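Final report, Chapter 2: Outcomes

The project's central promise was a pipeline that accepts a single protein chain and returns its three-dimensional structure in a standardized token representation, suitable for archiving and comparison. That pipeline is now operational. To close this chapter, we reproduce one record exactly as it appears in the project archive, with the input sequence first and the structure output second.
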Amino acid sequence: MVWGILSGVALAFYTLYPVKLLQENHPTVIVGWAMLIAGIGMSFIEPPWAVDISKWTGETYVYLTMVIVFGTMLSFWFYLSSLKYLTPQDLNIRAHISCALFMLNSRSP
């Protein structure tokens, strides 16, 4: 329950806070700084230099790159870019409906 509340607070902050930033900067700049700051913060929790990559294959690198590019960079960029066309409230409602529909659709028969 705590993670759900924290996730909701983070989503609300991430939706409302960058509205002013988007008037002054391109979404790519905002996503780039957000990923840099988050990466530095997470490196204190899980240091990237402590990961054993000696057993990684080429396939591992391809999958990791796909997750970084498509699952993180592009998704946040599209999310922030859509704030130009939708209000933060509309975007937040659509994001929650999308998640709810996905959960309902992914139930096992």
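Archive annotation: The chain has a mean pLDDT of 83.
This record, like all others produced under the grant, will remain available to the consortium after the project formally closes.
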